[in-house]
## 1
Amino acid sequence: MSGLITGELERLVQLLARLPGLGPRSARRAALFLVKRRESLLAPLAEALTRAAASVRPCSLCGNLDADDPCGVCRDTRRDPALICVVEDVADLWALERSGAFRGRYHVLGGTLSALDGVGPEDLNIDSLAARVRSAGVTEVILATNATVDGQTTAHYVADTLRDSGVLISQLAHGMPMGGELDYLDEGTLGWALKSRQPLP
């Protein structure tokens, strides 16, 4: 198959295959789809990618991606600056925004602590978080790291770092999802659900 796709088309397929969720076969299909729709899709996509590469940068305050600095979330005066939700990555910030349930500000760590991958505290945006908490009138920091070993390790480290700041430190609840059935849940989720149980009103 590699002999059939050469030159610029092969380069396009190879780059598309690097995207999350796209393997070689999906990348070939996507490349064909784009090339067949050169005027309506490929050219506008190329222009959008060029513009994004030139203008999209991490926000200097929270780490969100935006063409403006500070980002739109940080500039939004309707948000409560006393609440900071700490997330691992921009994708997590976007997921929380889709819920519409949080009206504070964010802080993107840029990953998680991982001894196996050689990621230490100095590789994450933890110092800048501590500085924000000390100077911005923050009253609560919500740790919204993933329920993985690295995510929980990172949450504990951040909590320890902020322990003497005087702010309330909370963490997202873990446990049973709405509509979930006990028989289909893993042991870790069931364990968190039991530990996080609350009395009925």
## 2
Amino acid sequence: MIVGFNHNVTYRGVGFHVQTEDSGIKSPQLITLLYHGGTIISSQKTTYADIIKVDNLEQIVEELAKEQHKGMLRRLTGGEFDERIAQFGITLNPAAAKPVAPPEPEIKPETPVTPESVAVEDPVPPSPPLEKSPVDIPGSESVIIVEEPIIDKFRKTKTSNEPSLDELIYAYLTAGQ
């Protein structure tokens, strides 16, 4: 049994959550839900009772779950649920259809670097803000995935340029589109 997949996605300025879970051998089905603030916007259920005797069941179920999860993300970002979302009174921002990248900082190589011009880092950095990463899904509008912060009181917060686990999973799920 796979654990499942969860992603927070900002689509047209509004946050949504997509969750896919496997119910296990006793109830062989995959369920994907699209939420907004606790409200289920859409759901999709796939049963796999007809294949539970195959040798590599876990791999097959994981692939089915990935495809179903990606499909829900594609349907959301492709605008398929826009009318349903509006029925719940949720207003999508048409101006947020394509996120605008921040302007590139101006770099002047001729500016000399002196000890006074170098900022000194605080030994214990503050918790980083929520990371937002624009992601392009071919054939759909750009979306932003928001990583939920994990707070560990016993370890210092690391600042890194490495992609988050959610970004890696999302990139893996949407690869080859």
## 3
Amino acid sequence: MKTVLFIRHASSSPDAFGYGDFERPLNEKGRREVLEMAEYLLQREAVPGLYISSPAKRACKTVELLLGHLGLPSHLMRKDMTLYLPGPDSILKAVEAVSDQIDNIAVCSHNPALTQLANEMVGNVTIDNMPPCSIFGIRTPIEKWLDFQKGPREFWFFKTPGGF
């Protein structure tokens, strides 16, 4: 069984003076969101062994803070440029490139691709929008990540900061 957590980066400051989109930092709300979501993952015992992140500052900081709150080493984060403002196919390719020895992963990226992908992954679940720092979890009985797109997938959970 393999699991994937699709994570939208935490809240950032869209009007951060002097920063371009790639360099936008998390705001205080975003930092609180990450703490809440880390606690949720610990409660669910849903802690991945690899975190693949967009290299955008807000996404990397989301993962760095998650790792810190989860008590995990920073080397579990891998940056992937194809996850910066991606399409759903780029996210899927990042998942398929993971070593089969790793069973539980997280992918931290951006909307609208994450919301679109969440809606394509599991037929019986519809997500209107993945807000900042939300997590959409999927389980699949595959053995190889290359089979992720064509293999059966089941909805595991959808959690938003302050939400259900």
## 4
Amino acid sequence: MSYVKSVEQPVVSAKRFALRPIAMRDVSLLDLYAGDERVAWNTTTIPHPLPPGASRAYIERAQQPDRVEDVWVMDGEATGLGGLLGVISLVRLDREQSEIGYWVVPAFWNSGIASEAVEALVGANPQASKTVFAAVFQDNPASARVLTHAGFDYLGDAEAYSVARGAVVPTWTYLKRQE
């Protein structure tokens, strides 16, 4: 695989919040929400329990100039929703492709926050990707609906290892071709 060196991340506007690059000021809320077993359970990379310093290390990696993953916070502070509603990221793949991943604070589940974030980030296309991929656990159909609502097409079944679950979990894979 070849990776393109990262550039400055833009702030992306959504209707009810902004997607802004993750910052060290987010560490406390990231500890709180990423440390929630319900959040970790639906991701491949967040361990549960969350080890001390994990959020700080994640933010530091996300701020490195040679990173391959751009990370944004769903920030609803300006609209009164709160400073961290969730996290969304794009991982650079080769051949002008990206993989999107996201999680939302449980208090905002089923509120349309994830759909709004995915649509805003895919619409902005900050990595100039021609194709965006996503995978969701098959026991999380709400996340699959977020992707289909945003115009992603089902590609097939696969599996991924979940650190929080300590197991390989069946997934559905989706893609969206950018125009």
